[in-house]
Structure prediction request, 453 residues.
Amino acid sequence: MKARLSTTTLLFLFLSGLLAWYVVYEKQIKVKKVTEEDKSKRLVQFSKDEIQEIEITHSADSSFKLKRSGEEWLLTSPVEDLADTGVINSLLTTLTSSEQERTVENDPTNLEVFGLEKPALVIRVAKDAQTAQDIFVGSQTQVGFSVYVRTSASKQVSKVNRALLSGFQKSLFELRNKNLVTIKKSELKEVEIHNSNGQTIINRNSDDKWILGRDGSPVDTAEWGKTLNTLVDLKATNVVSEKAELAAYRLDKPAVKTWLSEGPEKPKLGIFFSQVQGKVFAKRDDKPLIYEVDKNVLKELSKSALLLKDLHLVTFNRFSISRITLTRGSKTLELKKEGPVWILPNIQSERKLDPGKVEKFLTQLQDSKITKFIETKKERNSVLIIELFEKQEEKEVSVARVEFFPPKSGDALGASNHLNGSWVLSQEGFKQLNLTQDDFLETPSQKVEEKKS
Prediction:
């Protein structure tokens, strides 16, 4: 009995030891071995984040040097400029992930057969001033999708994926930053535009809303959004000159001038635009470079201040409105929302209020735009006052108010809490808002249909 127990114990201990060895091997030894094998296959022993400098040489007269600056990359040769950080990071990913598919020759005596006597591409990467590595890329293999390479760390010639060669065949323009505006849209505080329609200043106020700087009027969100995005997202399609040849590109007399600012304490960025033979050119005031840009940008930046101004009578969220009043002289029509239902409080009528007509009225008011601003004294007697209320923290607050005065020449004159100054609304637009109690009630035909059903 003791012999059997001893055998079972030994067998259990053996199996436990075998299991422990398997766990250690799978979790540590094997992982370490695979990691070391993968590392030995890598072309570059630096990680992507360790690399601080890059030099790319295609030929004797085509060489580019780049240097990391924080999270950005800078071109230092053959020109000094911002680099396209996205492009550079993509190149580094390709480089640091490239693996040697297999070794072709350990110590070749003839590099010419591999295209490595005069490499098609030389990449130098450096961690610091004392630690650098060169990668020499030769000709493409006759079979497969590979190229021959060797590095300064070894004499051996290996094959790697051809993506390394194609990825690094970039021109100067492809490597440099093509964004004309380097200020983030979220940090922009002011934009000034001078064009054939005059001068327009747009500021971001303390409520994070854009307004026209001269009179404080709100901007049309859609129109200004298109203009702002066009300007902030502007990219060069070409660099036509490294020198400030202003007259040659009519930038000595720009068609449009723009200035962008992050605030009064920071310098403004000026960008000027011109058009020559159907092409549009641009120049930053802090760089000599002249860029070619999309020709549609000039059209977008040539808008007048009036076109950028919000011409809606009022602005509100129609789904939050809890009460509407329409006042004519001493009489006020009140529409109130109880839950999801609109009612006429304190008014008895055989016809019910039509909720669809109330919603249509709110939509019409929300979409109504003035035709122009006018300089006139406010009339004493109004013909119609429309006011909207919504509940905020158990209190009813007025969120929109429009006042109409006796019309002149058929069009309605008015003022509102949303727009500064007096304005004109078309006769048809006023007619759609100048509604009475009957206009909100169900039609007789609706009542008959309801009885039948």
Observations:
- The radius of gyration is 36 Å.
- The first helix runs from residue 2 to 41.
